[in-house]
Write a structure and sequence with these properties.
With 298 residues, the chain is mainly alpha-helical. It contains 15 helices and no strands.
């Protein structure tokens, strides 16, 4: 306060000029090389898909032209309509969707229950049972496909959705992943639930299932694509057009005789349409898929 009773203006601190030294960061060649390698890998993976789409928009003459045309043409609509009508695409997509969804759901349910029994129940030979399930990964499909075909034939499941889906429901990989996830859950949770009088199935439904949604999503994406791309097993047990899946239906667009030139434009249009449902599933469940993979690694 000044002698005359008025408030004095606060003293302003003199701002000292700061000298900022510009430091150049060294050029990171490692990051540049890594990005270039990633771009090259993306180009290698994406180019076949791009070229398939380009062919699906061209005529037969443009497809057979040399050098090949790497730009889309103007026959997209007519090629896709031709592939849609000639290959009975709605029926093929429906059959593949049934096989993929039912087999993926069955694998998740069976693997969930088997992993729950292995982790939370004590019985004699529990470790042996787990390794017997896990060792089935070493058996290729071709080794057991004839015996499986005989069983399905004896049950009368040829040319049926049961024959297409039930043999694909067992998955040692999904059982192993659920087992590893349940081992990360603290034992105190199961002990507290047991003290509260919660039964095993209530504990599974109310405690473990809410914690496993991310794992469900990640496994469903992988198993859905696996079921969608099935070729050998549906080829063996189906011999009618009504039960064909889309992967097998694509070969019907290729002429069996050498007198006709294959219409690769129509073939690629059908292949692109067969590719869209798995891509849609991946894009729709991408966030849960990544979350499930990250949580599975913890």
């Amino acid at each position: 306060m000044s002698p005359d009773g008025t408030l004095a203006a606060p003293a302003r601190a003199t701002a000292l000029p700061r000298v900022v030294e510009s430091r150049r960061r060294p050029f990171d060649w490692g990051s540049v090389v890594a990005h270039l390698l990633l771009l090259a890998c993306v180009a290698v993976i994406a180019f076949p898909l791009y070229y398939a789409f380009v062919i699906s928009t061209q005529t037969v003459q443009e497809v057979l032209a040399r050098p090949p045309l790497l730009r889309p043409s103007g026959h997209l609509v007519e090629n896709y309509l031709e592939a849609w009508n000639r290959s009975h695409m709605p029926r093929l997509l429906w059959n593949s969707a049934v096989v993929a969804v039912v087999s993926a759901t069955g694998k998740i349910v069976m693997s969930l229950l088997s992993a729950f029994a292995i982790v939370y129940f004590n019985f004699r030979g529990k470790l042996l049972v787990f390794w017997m399930i896990f060792i089935t990964l070493m058996l290729p499909v071709e080794v057991r496909i004839m015996s499986t075909y005989e069983v399905i034939g004896n049950l009368g499941w040829l040319n049926s959705y049961s024959g297409l889906t039930v043999p694909l429901m067992a998955s040692a990989t999904a059982t192993f992943l659920f087992r590893q996830f349940y081992l990360t859950i603290p034992n105190e949770l199961a002990e507290a639930a047991q003290l509260d009088g919660v039964g095993p199935m209530r504990f599974l439904w109310s405690f473990l299932l809410p914690l496993s949604w991310a794992n469900f999503a990640a496994l469903f994406v992988v198993l859905f694509i696996f079921g969608w791309n099935q070729y050998l097993w549906p080829l063996m047990i189906t011999n009618t057009e009504a039960m064909r899946v889309v992967v097998i239906g694509l070969q019907d667009l290729i002429p069996r005789t050498g007198t006709h030139v294959p219409e690769w434009n129509v073939m690629m249009a059908a292949a692109i349409m067969a590719l869209l449902p798995p891509v849609a599933v991946i894009l729709f469940m991408q966030r849960w898929f990544v979350k499930g993979l990250i949580e599975s690694e913890k």
